[in-house]
Predict the 3D structure of the following.
Amino acid sequence: MAAAMLDLLSGFLDLKGVLLIALIFVPLERLLPRRREQPLLRRFWTVDTLYLFLNRIPIGIGIMLLIALSLAAGQTLLPDAFRGAVAAQPVWLQVIELIIVADLVFYAIHRLFHAVPFLWRFHAVHHSIEDLDWLAAHRVHPVDQILTKGLSLVPCFMLGFSGAAIGMSLLLYKWHALLLHSNVRIDFGPLGWIVASPAFHHWHHANEPGAWDRNFAGQLPIWDLLFGTANMPAGRMPARYGIGETLPGSYVQQMLYPFRADRGAVPEAPPTPEQQAA
């Protein structure tokens, strides 16, 4: 398991995959754009590029600390026979179980980040995105990512899932998260209520009252359906994204934004043209 932890850390710190990601998503967003008017080099692309490269180290270290604590807790609290039985399952079955368990925890933590004002300060950095694409997916405050993704991994390591299964589930999560934020018109049809689609997650980022605090699941919309937070109107997509407030324009200022003494509550989004006319 120690080897799996080192592999995971190297995945957070390895930059070689960045070129592969760009080579896949840049053409995909040009061929199947959700918003045709959105340019390749849209606003704040330089800031989001800094997130892509600079966030890897603090997030990787933070998640590795949580994993180490999870392993220690699992070895202390759970019988070796139980953890061994979990790891002995077929890898494909473990991957399915991992996605279910991790996404349920992710749903709960993500929802807390919307409900608790102190946590929202960090999550607002991610929701300040006004032009969604694969690069914007990386605009996440390290505190936010460490707690949401890191805590979703705690039961996975505690329960004793194999390193191979955890590695595969993390790889699926990474590419799925990039797709969810990308500027592509891919909806999955009826399967979009089983596996989260870009349309599903774009509605989570929508800057309109009916979409606020909805679609918390990272991969499985079933959690939003079960807990009454699902929102994916048929036949239309959000007109705009963001939080109704423009955050500071630099990476460093956005890192410090949650700690600013003069930072007030995030204001409500401006009224839509339809609301203004009403």
